[in-house]
Amino acid sequence: MINNIFTALAREKTPGAIMEFVLWCAVCFVVLMSLIALAVGNGHVVWILMMLFSVGLAVLMAFRLKAIAMLYSVCVFYAIMFLVHYLCLGLVVGSGESPAVVSTILFVLTLMLSLAVVICAFIQFFSRFRLGTVLTVLVLADSAAILLMQILMYTSEFTDAYMNAEHQIWMNARGYWIGTAGYWGILAVTSVFYACFFWGPIDSRKEKIIMPGGMGKPYGTGSFLGLQGTYGFCTGRMFYLQGRTLTLGSGQGVDIPISDAYVSKVHCAVRFNTTMGFYEVWDQSANGVFLSNGTRLQKGTYNSVRRGSILCIGSQAQQFRLM
């Protein structure tokens, strides 16, 4: 079964999955705001791009491509949309006059901060270096800087009172506030996503996207990772992770169905932590998940389990080996 935000919400019911769903709903609301701005602004290019980029982020979040969504969000909204918004809405003044020096300096400083965010994001997701805390702080600071700059862009004087008033009228005619509020909403979603990913409940086990030449895969995270039925209903069968979280249970819709009275409908979930090199097992059953030595895994949290271990699902009658 394809791993997406809805199945995660139904299976895991963790604070992280709930937070992901809330943030996804917020992005969908931004798409709606972009449509309204597009209608009010007579199809202005800023709101067209805003809508398309927001839809792209919503799709990535829906399929839980978290690392890709985070890299996408900073590249698109902190670099591209920031420049497009400023160039299309901040520099178009009535007679071609230039903005005030303070506005230009603030723009340059914010642009440099945005570039720093993008560079740190690439380093974080494409190398061995871990810049999660630094990256999160930069994202929060850049969001605040963009918010401040866009407020000043609307309220501060450009050349004189007349020109500033004319510029405000021009922006209002293009759905400036509804569209810009949507943009701020995306910045808020990205900031919360980063904070929850590196500091909070959203699972950050997939911190890397791809490593050239096999970098970042010290534990051999190939397609052979998975579960092998060694005793019981699934004896001899192989179930490969392929980067997913597999669910086991006796109910409909699970990845590994097990017909057994001691197995709950959604008994447990198994995934592989590429950073630590361990499997992680989440138990939410009534009868528990045990290791071959009789140790019961803690319920309601992810338990680290070594490769090669035997899992007993509900009882000794259903056993799987973690390959």
The proportion of residues in beta strands is 5-15%
Order of strands in the sheet with most strands = 2-1-10-9-7
Oligomer: single chain
Low-confidence stretches: 158-162, 210-223
Which descriptor suits the 3D outline? elongated
Structural class: alpha+beta
> What is the number of independent domains?
2
Distance between the termini: 20 Å
Task: Tell me the Rg in angstroms.
Answer: 25 Å
Mean pLDDT: 82
Please write the string of helix (H) and strand (E) elements.
HHHHHHHHEEEEEEEEEE
Which sheet architecture does the biggest sheet show?
5 strands, antiparallel
Tell me the number of helical segments per DSSP (H or I, 4 or more residues long). 8
Helix content: 40-55%
**What's the number of extended β-strand segments?**
10
Protein name: FHA domain-containing protein
Organism: Hominisplanchenecus murintestinalis
Question: Would you mind describing this structure in some detail?
Answer:
- The structure is a single chain.
- The chain has helices at residues 5-11, 15-40, 45-62, 66-89, 101-126, 132-155, 161-172, 176-198; strands at 226-231, 238-240, 246-249, 256-257, 268-273, 278-283, 289-291, 302-305, 310-313, 319-322.
- The protein is α+β, with helices and mostly antiparallel strands.
- The strands form two sheets. Strands 2-1-10-9-7 form a five-stranded antiparallel beta sheet, with no helix packed on it. The protein has a five-stranded mixed beta sheet with strand order 4-3-5-6-8, with no helix packed on it.
- A hairpin with a 5-residue loop joins β9 (310-313) and β10.
- The chain is elongated, with a radius of gyration of 25 Å.
- The model is unreliable at 158-162 and 210-223 (pLDDT under 50).
